[in-house]
């Protein structure tokens, strides 16, 4: 079973149109839609914003639906000058950049008493997502790298430079690493797919509604293609 966690209502609506809906469940303020997409059993849900919402959502998918693969899509701010607005970043791993107990001796980003610093994505899923995105979205660039998550909107130059220097991240957002940690603890596979909405430095040049429409088209096509080939 594949769990697909979307960031936007519009995105989830399009994904629902692409599937044969079999059942729906309300839990923790979220609507879980179960059905068949591209011949595979999937559950599609919008998690809401922030790491807590994402952690709850991912655990419900695992506990209530037996999901063994998690896919998260949404938008993120670029932390790499080569990554442009509209491009896709696919996670190699994920770190919670706002976790800081460095005063106790741990590196910033390390969750105390966890046996790993970052949460690795499934290598086969990453490779497949890259291949599919190049096929279905040839008009944009595809990148892989570390996704940074925190309950913060990153817009300042100094913060961006700090994140790059400290964590070597490709993009910053607010949910993915929480799903990654949930996947790691439950021993299920995952991948994060993020469309770049800005440069994380207030330099956006595209109208946001225009970007959202384009981004949804890109990652809905990618998700559908990825599910079909899994």
TrEMBL record:
Coiled coil: none annotated. Its EC number is 3.2.2.9. GO terms for cellular component: cytosol. InterPro entries: MTA_SAH_Nsdase (IPR010049), Nucleoside_phosphorylase_d (IPR000845), Nucleoside_phosphorylase_sf (IPR035994). One of its GO terms (biological process) is L-methionine salvage from S-adenosylmethionine. Keywords: Amino-acid biosynthesis, Glycosidase, Hydrolase, Methionine biosynthesis. Residues 2-227 form the Nucleoside phosphorylase domain. GO terms for molecular function: adenosylhomocysteine nucleosidase activity; methylthioadenosine nucleosidase activity. Pathway: Amino-acid biosynthesis; L-methionine biosynthesis via salvage pathway; S-methyl-5-thio-alpha-D-ribose 1-phosphate from S-methyl-5'-thioadenosine (hydrolase route): step 1/2. CDD domains: MTAN. The keyword Ribonucleoprotein does not apply. This is adenosylhomocysteine nucleosidase. It comes from Coprococcus comes.
